Amino acid sequence: MATSWVGSVVSINCGPTLGVYQGEVSSVDQTSQTISLRQPYHNGLRCPVPEVTVSAMDIKELKFVDIQNAVTKSTSGQRTATEVTSLHTGRQNNRSSLPSFPSSSSNPGTAPITILRRVPTGSSNSRGGTQATHRKNSVRNGGAGWTMRPKDDECFGDGTDEDLDTDFDFEGNLALFDKAAVFSQIEEKNGNSNRAHHHNSHAEQKHPSYRHDENILESKPVTYRQITVPQHRGKEYCTDSGLVVPSIPYELHKHLLAAAERWGLSLERRLEMIGVCSTQMALTLLGGPNRLTPKNIHQRPTVALLCGPHVQGAQGISCGRHLANHDVEVILFLPNFVKMHESVISEINLFSRTSGKQVSNVRDLPMSPIDLVINCLDCHENLLLREQPWYRSAADWANQNRAPVLSIDPPVSEQDQTVEAKWTLSLGLPLPLVERESRLYLCDIGIPNLVFQEVGISYHSPFGCKFVVPLHPV
């Protein structure tokens, strides 16, 4: 009797602890009440051992899957032959099962038996696996039993173990990707879109793009050479906006200032204008709003002015007065001269009413580096001042001090500068100065356009919204 079960495919449920075993019956021992399975599966996975023996004490439920006979066998020994008439194929999956039939045994404890049939290899509904799976009965709304597939069986019931031993072939799958063909298709699409865009660009003109500082309204062509001087043979400079500013000789510059005085731009008014412009530039060089704040009053910048007894010296003193009014510590160097220009005396009287300090000896100047040195020692009319002892001592002090130097209205000279300046400030129109490492700036001193025309200069202001603009050599 026991040998008749050999070769049958069974599914043994040993409870939640041991799980479910499936396989082909290899032997049944009635004495020890055990059953052995060949090529067993445990919970849907192939066991690492070729044979498993299960005791009858551990068996909770036993299901037979007999492919040859297709009959249902109960654990009580009763056998009921049933002819299989149809195959359930309602859902397209890798398994098909027969409807479940309850056992005809009179023993109420006997569990229902379900017969499962494996789909042959090569079927359109098969994934190549030959493992038999089962379905459990479930009662819906107390009615008839329907075959339902549990979630665990859906996820783990397929025979996927056949592909576990095979590594994924990355190189082979990468070789299937034809890079050249894909990129050729992309380039072809881009080429078609570019040709379409090129075709459309002829149909409608592309609107130009503008910068934030460009005007979108159509206007006349820009003329960058708006200043012309008679018999110009000197140097030329340009502003940041590209306007050309030519240089003029000192004699023409002198006639221009004289014409402005005849029309009411006196020396005193010119000195005030130069003092304001040079102060504005000096405050910017000292740090501007980042340095001159109420919270930084304990670190006031220090500026030394080196002035001579002439108009250029008066310009420097005017600058020092405005700097002192802006909380800058100013030290004015001016030797004790017997004869000085009237404008210098007037500016000294005003400077004495500020918090600035005036010294007449180089020894009284600070020995430590300061923030800025303003040089107004030179004169256009008298270049022999460079030979004076006070001039040499002041120039030596400025060169030894590590502070940067701003030179205001220096004269035209072929000789080297006695004080190396980092910045140079010219008035009205620049003079043809010798090219040095000094950066050139130009300040507006308030001369009207008709005054320029009176001396033969066609003039249009290059300053824009500023009073001091940088100049670059052309």
TrEMBL record:
<feature type="domain" description="DFDF">
    <location>
        <begin position="156"/>
        <end position="192"/>
    </location>
</feature>
<feature type="region of interest" description="Disordered">
    <location>
        <begin position="73"/>
        <end position="151"/>
    </location>
</feature>
<protein>
    <recommendedName>
        <fullName>Enhancer of mRNA-decapping protein 3</fullName>
    </recommendedName>
</protein>
<dbReference type="InterPro" id="IPR025762">
    <property type="entry name" value="DFDF"/>
</dbReference>
<feature type="compositionally biased region" description="Low complexity">
    <location>
        <begin position="93"/>
        <end position="108"/>
    </location>
</feature>
<dbReference type="GO" id="GO:0033962">
    <property type="term" value="P:P-body assembly"/>
</dbReference>
<comment type="similarity">
    <text>Belongs to the EDC3 family.</text>
</comment>
<dbReference type="InterPro" id="IPR034107">
    <property type="entry name" value="Lsm16_N"/>
</dbReference>
<feature type="compositionally biased region" description="Polar residues">
    <location>
        <begin position="73"/>
        <end position="92"/>
    </location>
</feature>
<feature type="region of interest" description="Disordered">
    <location>
        <begin position="191"/>
        <end position="212"/>
    </location>
</feature>
<dbReference type="Pfam" id="PF12701">
    <property type="entry name" value="LSM14"/>
</dbReference>
<feature type="domain" description="YjeF N-terminal">
    <location>
        <begin position="249"/>
        <end position="453"/>
    </location>
</feature>
<dbReference type="Pfam" id="PF03853">
    <property type="entry name" value="YjeF_N"/>
</dbReference>
<dbReference type="Pfam" id="PF09532">
    <property type="entry name" value="FDF"/>
</dbReference>
<dbReference type="InterPro" id="IPR004443">
    <property type="entry name" value="YjeF_N_dom"/>
</dbReference>
<keyword id="KW-0694">RNA-binding</keyword>
<dbReference type="InterPro" id="IPR025609">
    <property type="entry name" value="Lsm14-like_N"/>
</dbReference>
<dbReference type="GO" id="GO:0031087">
    <property type="term" value="P:deadenylation-independent decapping of nuclear-transcribed mRNA"/>
</dbReference>
<keyword id="KW-0963">Cytoplasm</keyword>
<dbReference type="InterPro" id="IPR019050">
    <property type="entry name" value="FDF_dom"/>
</dbReference>
<dbReference type="GO" id="GO:0000932">
    <property type="term" value="C:P-body"/>
</dbReference>
<dbReference type="InterPro" id="IPR036652">
    <property type="entry name" value="YjeF_N_dom_sf"/>
</dbReference>
<feature type="compositionally biased region" description="Polar residues">
    <location>
        <begin position="121"/>
        <end position="132"/>
    </location>
</feature>
<feature type="compositionally biased region" description="Basic and acidic residues">
    <location>
        <begin position="201"/>
        <end position="212"/>
    </location>
</feature>
<dbReference type="GO" id="GO:0003729">
    <property type="term" value="F:mRNA binding"/>
</dbReference>
